[in-house]
């Protein structure tokens, strides 16, 4: 499939997942995961600087509980013209984002179904039990790898001569073409990772994310239940 077909396929997958039973509980899963991510990287956010900006970007654009339907609709509507308006590297990043979004929605829906089967449990314990019921460690590793790859793509884009200027010049045409949300994502990613790249901090930031997310996955999959629940509560800011 070419880039446009891949974007349309990913968006169609997301739309089908949103129509599935248990989709109402997906937002509960996303809210908890967003809080967990914020807790995992509270030190980076508190330190300020480019790494804090990159953390917030990941939190808002990849791990957040925002409604991305507007961006999805734009992807589907303009997938065919994306390749003519943006450079190939930017188009590839848009494809990666759409496919990561589809994978994330699939995992979140599986979590929501397992979550619904555990009514009455405290949130951290419920999440842990849902995580283990869903399993899929390979898909979780793939999700993390895709997040890191997207970060590296954004870091590489910042080294493309003139791309920052071009993105700003594209604001008007992008808005006219109905691509405002995608434009904002690309600009925010370019600016955020550009500041990080100027401090040679992209790989260090992504390495930190890789280590912490893998450690959390190992804990959730294999850790002792009480220790797992206590760790989650701590990251959620609810530790006793």
From TrEMBL:
It comes from the Bacteria. Residues 20-224 form the DUF8198 domain. NCBIfam families: FFLEE_fam. This is DUF8198 domain-containing protein. It comes from Ramlibacter aquaticus.
């Amino acid at each position: 499939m070419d880039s446009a077909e891949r974007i349309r396929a990913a968006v169609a997958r997301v739309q089908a997942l949103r129509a599935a039973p248990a989709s109402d509980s997906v937002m509960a899963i996303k809210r908890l995961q967003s809080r967990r991510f914020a807790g995992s990287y509270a030190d980076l956010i508190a330190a300020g600087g480019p790494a804090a900006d990159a953390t917030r970007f990941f939190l808002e654009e990849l791990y957040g509980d925002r409604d991305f339907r507007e961006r999805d609709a734009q992807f589907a509507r303009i997938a065919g013209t994306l390749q003519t308006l943006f450079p190939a590297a930017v188009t590839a990043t848009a494809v990666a984002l759409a496919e990561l979004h589809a994978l994330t929605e699939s995992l979140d829906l599986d979590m929501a179904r397992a979550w619904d089967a555990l009514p009455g449990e405290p949130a951290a314990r419920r999440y842990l039990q849902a995580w283990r019921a869903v399993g899929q460690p390979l898909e979780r590793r793939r999700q993390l790898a895709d997040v890191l790859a997207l970060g590296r793509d954004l870091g590489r884009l910042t080294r493309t001569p003139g791309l920052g200027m071009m993105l700003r010049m594209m604001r008007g045409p992008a808005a006219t073409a109905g691509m405002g949300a995608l434009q904002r994502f690309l600009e925010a990613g370019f600016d955020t990772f550009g500041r990080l790249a100027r401090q040679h901090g992209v790989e260090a930031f992504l390495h930190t994310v890789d280590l912490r997310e893998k450690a959390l996955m190992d804990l959730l999959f294999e850790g002792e239940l009480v220790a797992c629940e206590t760790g989650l509560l701590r990251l959620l800011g609810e530790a006793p």
